[in-house]
Fold this sequence. Notes:
Blueprint: H1 2-35, E1 40-41, H2 53-56, E2 60-67, E3 73-79, E4 82-92, E5 98-107, E6 123-132, H3 155-161, E7 170-174, H4 198-238
Parallel strand pairs: 1-2, 5-7
Antiparallel strand pairs: 2-4, 2-6, 3-4, 4-5, 6-7
Helix pairs in contact: 1-4
Amino acid sequence: MAAILLVVGLAALAVWQVHRRAQKLDLIARVEARIHAAPTSAPGPEHWAEVSAATDEYRRVVVTGRWIEDRSALVQAVTELGGGYWVMTPLARDDGTKIFVNRGFIPATERDSAAWQVRNAGSVTIMGLLRLSESGGGFLRANAPASDRWYSRDVTAIAAARGLGKVAPYFIDTERTTTSQGSLPVAGLTVIAFSNNHLVYALTWAALALMTAASTIFVTLDVLRPRWFGWRQAGLNES
């Protein structure tokens, strides 16, 4: 009985992984469609409560406003260019709402450089990918607002430390443009990758289920064989 339950459990895990693979492929297809779609206006405060990873993550958006240049935060990052920081600068829209913008990456050696400081005090239009606020945890170290050390792009925590009040529950990863080539911060380094090993897991669980079933049948036959021969011999003696 235990062997049967084990086989059923392993088979169920294989089926679950097939289902998870279908979900992951659907997610990848939706994200691919979003990042190549025409940009739409960044969600305003009336839609902030509705913003979610399922419907908005990596959506191309556009927003216009003015930089709040003295409220930038540097968040530690590791990119294809090495170690350094993301430059997170809040943008104030005409309606007074604020959205953090990840303007791009700077090397650790440029932390105190004026090269990445805001140069445009007027109105700017930013286009990029909508990203949900990072709460830290997992592989990310806990932020230390008191010492102004940031390890995750937690826009709510950064806004509180900067005295900005309520901000959008997301930030925007700026796209790289021809005019930004060779300048700091380096934009357009968003990594879009999803682990999709579910087929391997499904095959593994299915193989284990088959092996367990085969082993169970073999052991059962091995146990029953002497009895079967015994019953057969007894029948022959009686005849």
